[in-house]
Design a protein that fits this description.
The complex is a heterodimer of chains A (90) and B (267).
Chain A: E1 13-16, H1 24-34, E2 41-46, H2 49-61, E3 65-73, E4 76-82
Parallel strand pairs in A: 1-2
Antiparallel strand pairs in A: 2-4, 3-4
Chain B: H1 5-10, H2 12-15, H3 21-30, E1 32-36, H4 42-52, E2 56-60, H5 85-96, E3 101-105, H6 114-118, E4 123-126, H7 131-144, E5 147-154, E6 157-163, H8 171-174, H9 187-190, H10 194-213, E7 222-227, E8 232-237
Parallel strand pairs in B: 1-2, 1-4, 2-3, 4-5
Antiparallel strand pairs in B: 5-6, 6-7, 7-8
Helix pairs in contact in B: 4-5, 4-10
The chains are: A alpha+beta (90), B alpha/beta (267).
């Protein structure tokens, strides 16, 4: 994947989901981003490869913006998601 | 809201839904729903609301479990014959989900107690088996502005409507007064296919969840009709009667009515 610079992204919250498998990878990511404000960036750390495809796709489905996916080790990925959408309140 | 580990796992399939999420699940956990009757309709309603995580479920029933109930009243079972239905339902629902608190109201509803009982709940579910209760519940909900999910079954048929006082018609807009005594047989007299109560009750639970979450289109101003034999689902419009005696512009019913009990076979 080449060298990636995460320095230019300002992260507002990081969650470590190593050890988690689908669908809890997305469930926990979604719960975290729900609590954040629009425009803020969530960094999620995974060690489960399917999550690196599923979570970004699900996030984008819900209107969030995936900024970057970094592989930092053989079994470690960092996904950066910006909250672009707030669920409409009742 | 911070969910416990167990809650994240338990409600994961809800949280995944775009229309629900963590904040939707929080609404469900904070909701207070009361069931009028823990019988054929009430059983599946309470079961699915407990599964969903409705935090407080009230159960109004003062009958005891009988063997003839068990063909359809799935909140109860053989070992509970003789037990008060409200207590039996409490055991069933709280065992399914420890997040749920069941409050039992072991009394027969009348004009004297209904307001006090339902005032602390957000949503009322009518699973009663008699017309006096049905009208009492409707009128009380209109007066207290409580959302009411009202359903009824007969043999192979069911019907369901969602009453949002001030936003749409009530039960009296559809059926202004109770039918004459003896005209409509009860399940006890006419029979009921067990599964019909399961389907219709679960449809009621669906309307409750939608009301809590504020999603989808409620059966407001609509009557859903289902026939189990031909599997036909039909929805008809229910006009909001501006001259309705209880919810209209000039109400004539301003106090709750205890209609005389019609049926000599009633408990």
């Amino acid at each position: 994947m080449g060298v990636t610079m995460a320095d230019d992204i300002k992260v507002d919250k990081t969650i470590d989901l190593k050890g988690q498998v689908c669908p809890y990878t997305f469930v926990r990511s979604k719960l975290a981003i729900e609590k954040m404000n629009l425009g803020e960036v969530l960094e999620i750390i995974f060690d489960h490869k399917p999550a690196t495809e599923n979570v970004p796709r699900s996030m984008e489905n819900e209107g969030q913006k995936v900024l970057k996916i970094d592989q930092t080790g053989e079994k470690e990925w960092h996904v950066f998601v910006r909250k672009d959408k707030e669920k409409a309140k009742k | 809201m911070d969910f416990t580990e167990d809650q994240i796992l338990r409600y994961s399939r809800h949280i995944l839904l775009p229309e629900v999420g963590g904040d939707g699940q929080e609404k469900i956990l904070n909701a207070k729903v009361v069931l009028v009757g823990a019988g054929g309709l009430g059983s599946p309603v309470g079961y699915y609301l407990a599964a969903a995580g409705v935090g407080t479920i009230g159960v109004i029933d003062n009958d005891r479990v009988e063997i003839s109930n068990l063909q359809r009243q799935i909140a109860h079972n053989t070992s509970r014959i003789g037990m008060l239905k409200a207590d039996s339902a409490k055991e069933t629902y709280e065992t399914l989900n420890h997040d749920v608190k069941v409050v039992t109201h072991k009394e027969r509803l009348s004009s004297k107690n209904i307001m006090d009982i339902i005032k602390d709940y957000d949503i009322v579910v009518d699973g009663s088996d008699n017309f006096p209760t049905r009208y009492l519940v409707n009128d009380a909900c209109v007066m207290l502005k409580k959302t009411l999910i009202s359903a009824a079954v007969f043999r192979f048929e069911g019907q369901l409507m969602s009453i949002y006082p001030g936003e749409g018609p009530c039960y009296r807009c559809l059926f202004e007064v109770p039918p004459p005594a003896g005209m409509v047989p009860s399940c006890q007299e006419a029979g009921i296919l067990g599964v019909v109560t399961g389907v219709v009750g679960t449809l009621q639970a669906t309307e409750v969840i939608k009301a809590i979450l504020g999603i989808g289109q409620p059966l407001k101003g609509k009557l859903l009709l289902w026939n189990a034999l031909d599997m036909n689902f039909r929805t008809v419009k229910v006009p909001w009667n501006k001259e309705c005696p209880v919810c209209g512009e000039h109400p004539t019913i301003k106090e709750l009515i205890d209609y005389e009990h019609f049926c000599s076979m009633s408990h």
